[in-house]
Amino acid sequence: MKTDTLVLILGDQLDRHSSALAACDKQHDLVVMIESREESTRVWSHKARTGLFLAAMRQHRDWLIDQGFEVAYIGIDQPEAESFDTALRSVVKKSGANRLVMTEAGEFGVEQQITSVCGELGVIVETRPDTHFICSRSEFADWAGSRKTMVMEHFYRHMRKTHDVLMVDGGPAGGEWNFDKLNRKPFGREGPGMLPRIPGFEPDDTTQGALDDVQRLFPDNPGSVSAFSWPVTREQALASLDDFIAQRLPAFGPFQDAMWTGEHTLHHSLLSAAMNLKLLNPREVIDAAVAAADEGHAPLQSVEGFVRQILGWREFVRGVYWKEMPDLVERNELEATGPLPDFYWTGETDMACLRHAIGQTLELGYAHHIQRLMVTGLFSLLLGVRPQAVHEWYLAVYVDAVEWVEAPNTIGMSQFADGGILGSKPYAASGRYIQRMSNYCSECQYAPDKATGTQACPFTTLYWDFLMRHEKRFARHPRAAMQWRSLNRLDKSERTAIKRAATQLRKRLTGESASGKA
Ligand code: FAD
Ligand code: SF4
User: Fold this and answer.
1) Pick the residue with more confidence: 199 or 5?
2) Going by DSSP bridges, is the β-strand pair 167-168/171-172 parallel, antiparallel, or unpaired?
3) Phi and psi (nearest 5°) for 470?
4) What phi, psi does 264 have (nearest 5°)?
5) What pLDDT, on a 0 to 100 scale, did the predictor assign at position 518?
6) How many domains, the chain?
7) pLDDT > 90: percent of the chain
8) What is the pLDDT of residues 262-319, one digit of tens each?
9) What is the CATH number of the domain that holds 296?
10) Which of 348, 409, 426, 474 could form a disulfide with 416 if both were Cys (CB 3.0 to 4.6 A apart)?
11) Within 10 Å of residue 126's Cβ, how many Cβ atoms?
12) pTM
């Protein structure tokens, strides 16, 4: 179709009310959607992640056509789908368009790429704000600009007040902003008990076609699509939300940080992928949770804990991403230079916690927050892996991985490579933390309280080594000093033995003895 105006819908912009779509004139404009082969090869991508994007995009295409939009859809098999760039050039050329309307891209590099291609082709780009998010990029910049440091807790309270969420008479519902004291419990010896079943969605022909394409085109990519049952349409995403509110929200708060062998999802929502594709709006997710508290279906401690993740963390990391890019992804504050151990791509390791967390990640493309932060992320932090290698891994292996949320969490929160924007001190802990929050250690050959010797837990050895390597930086740090003071418990011979054990461990796991500059 010949047209003046293209309306570009990116793979993570499947919102039926997106600002770009709202501006589309069905009679004259052409909607463009592009499946790019490069997306799955530039950075390795879990088969389920690629399958999810392709399936949800094709479902959205069909919905757009049903609604009467004219759609130019570049499928992954078409020659021009080699890269996003070649596909966009081809559509512009064929349509003769001189204007492109889009919603702000989620990813910095994509926005740059579109501006550059359109600039070369003489196409004017009209970018509209992404109304999916509750806090716009400019609102976040105003909030951040007025303070010395960006603290998530301050941002979260600001958002609660501004949007009147869980507020009563101008104060926080229940008299507290935060119910962490009641939350973050382990399960106890008897485990989580009977857990609600997670709803799965049988792939229809469109979804199955996308999964078959992934198998055919990317057979060597990590992971599998054999257990694929993620929501890929708006209707399925809404059904997932309803199920979470009814079945798992009530116990979400208390057990939000707990882990258990063989139980991959526990009381978590599994809504991140649907939200990141924009099949769900964060406002409707928050409203549904708050309504559950109002109706007495879920306790306030769970509802507040859940709302904090979305109104607080999710909006905060998006604001930080746009404020700190492009150099956020290049940062390496702790100067870590080690390679990522191969077992991150296979799950083959004798450390039970890592075997479980990585195994389920490769199987499903999912692990919950504490598995990501305090198992896989913690281990690479303590080992001293180059943050960019860790970033590539997280971007590849989770179905919900998109750079605006993945990078601040990985580079910032989990690796402290941003120097303290996401968290004021590194999330460093020994194997004892994992022992307290899970049952993994009970089936492991290592002992979480031992830092040296044949039974030494690698987390614990590397934890003490990490404290020693970064002693200068954190010994007088206002928030970290107390943790670093525990080093005083070690005498000289213990320090030497731990350093030696850490060096041997690094050699065994990565073939390198150094982790970078201390
Ligand atoms: P729940 O535990 O049910 O939480 C509810 C929702 O809150 C999530 O769906 C998510 O939208 C939001 N949320 C919770 N924690 C965070 C957070 N720290 N930052 C932003 N949003 C949050 N999340 C992604 O969506 N994509 C990623 O690529 C991603 N990469 C991560 C990498 C690392 C190293 C870490 C530590 C965290 C990462 N997270 C990422 C955040 C979080 O782990 C996931 O959002 C969560 O595990 C998704 O599972 P869920 O939907 O069951 O979440
Ligand atoms: Fe993980 Fe150490 Fe526990 Fe083994 S002993 S499961 S390595 S924390």
Assistant:
1) 5
2) antiparallel
3) -115, 25
4) -85, -25
5) 46
6) 3
7) 90
8) 999 999 999 999 999 999 999 999 999 999 999 999 999 999 999 999 999 999 999 9
9) 1.25.40.80
10) 426
11) 12
12) 0.96
Q: Where are the beta strands (DSSP E) in 302-452?
A: none
Same domain, 9 and 106: yes
**Structural domain includes residue 240:** no
* C-alpha dist (Å) from residue 470 to 186, 460, 473, 486: 30, 15, 5, 13
Indicate if the pLDDT at residue 137 is higher than 80: yes
Question: What pLDDT shows up at residue 196?
Answer: 87
Q: How many CA atoms lie within 13 A of 293 on its CB side?
A: 21
In this structure, the answer to whether residues 38 and 59 fall within a common structural domain is yes
With a 6 Å cutoff on the Cβ, whether 451 touches ligand 2 is: no
pLDDT at residue 514 greater than cutoff 80: no
Same domain, 439 and 478: yes
- Reading the block at residue 243, the tokens are 């199920």
353 lines ligand 2 (CB under 6 A): yes
Query: Where in the sequence is the domain holding 306, given as residue range(s)?
Result: 137-196+248-324
Q: Which ligand neighbours the alpha carbon of 368 most closely?
A: 1
Last residue of a domain, one of 91, 110, 128: 128
Determine the residue of 432, 446, 505 to mutate for testing ligand 2's pocket, defined as the one with the most ligand atoms within 8 A of the Cβ atom.
446
Question: How far is the centre of ligand 1, averaged over its atoms, from the C-alpha of 355 (Å)?
Answer: 21
| pLDDT tens-place string over residues 358-417 | 999 999 999 999 999 999 999 999 999 999 999 999 999 999 999 999 999 999 999 999
In a shared domain, residues 313 and 348: no
CA dist 281 and 266 (Å) reads: 23
CATH number of the structural domain spanning residue 30: 3.40.50.620
DSSP string covering 305-359: HHHIIIIIIIHHHHHHHHHHTTGGGG--TT-B-BPPPGGGGT---S-HHHHHHHH
Q: If DSSP codes are grouped into helix, strand and coil, which group holds residue 32?
A: strand
Q: Which alpha helices (H) appear in 194-271, and where do they start and end?
A: 205-217, 234-247, 249-252
Statement: residue 513 has pLDDT above 80: no
Residue 389 counted as domain residue: yes
Residue 364, ligand 1, Cβ within 6 A: no
CA of 512 to the centre of ligand 1 (A): 32
Q: Distance between CA 232 and CA 224 in Å, rounded?
A: 17
Whether 414 lines ligand 1, by a CB cut-off of 6 Å, is yes
Q: How many DSSP H helices and E strands does the chain contain? A: 24, 7
Ligand 1 contact, 266 CB (< 6 A): no
Domain co-membership, 163 together with 284: yes
User: Does residue 401 sit in the same domain as residue 486?
Assistant: yes
In a domain, 207, yes or no: no
Extract the tokens encoding 483: 């943790």
Query: How remote is the CA of residue 509 from the centroid of ligand 2, in Å?
Result: 15
- Which pLDDT value is given to residue 516? 63
Q: Are residues 446 and 367 in the same domain?
A: yes
| CATH number for the domain harbouring residue 401 | 1.10.579.10
Where does a domain end: 81, 101, 128?
Answer: 128
Ligand nearest to the CA of 313: 1
Question: Are 58 and 147 found together in one domain?
Answer: no
Is residue 357 scored above 80 in pLDDT? Answer: yes
Ligand 1: does its nearest atom lie under 6 Å from the Cβ of 320? Answer: no
Q: Which residues pair with residue 338 across a beta bridge?
A: 385
